[in-house]
Amino acid sequence: MRRWTIAVSVAVTLTAQAISIAQAAPEFSGTWRLNQAKSSRAIVGNTPDIQFASQLEVKQSATDISIVATSVRQQPVSAVYKLDGTKVNVQAPEGITETGEAKLNGTTLVITSRRSFSSPAGDIVVDFKEVWNRSGNELTVEKTRTQSGDSSTQKAVYDKL
Predict the structure, then answer these.
(1) Which of 13, 35, 102, 160 is most buried, by CB atoms within 10 Å?
(2) Beta strand extents in the chain (DSSP E only)
């Protein structure tokens, strides 16, 4: 009887640990470089449908995630998002105002943002939704861009350096 009790106790402990690991927050920290071969074709070139950064520098803690997105010949865009969905200001190029919020949803990170700026055609407002998923040393970012009621979605795949 005692062996049976020990066996059940060990099984319960291992199950609890497995559940705890499965529910642990995903970790996105690191330097990530765009892998064009694995990404949607329409995100590269002179006029991409949706722009993605060439490289992401990500630092994550239990309460927030810091992202610096860099691309060739463009100013970096950076933000520190609270993982509880609190709205924050995003550091964007001059003349652009951007706010955003982030939340962990199971094993994914969901970032929504709103960018506004003035142009010769008038004031422009663009909404973005990014869904991040990590699998090993690969980060997939699916981004939806919505402007004036029209939406487009593309996918970028990043490799961890």
Answers:
(1) 102
(2) 30-34, 55-60, 64-71, 74-82, 88-90, 96-105, 108-119, 122-135, 138-147, 150-160
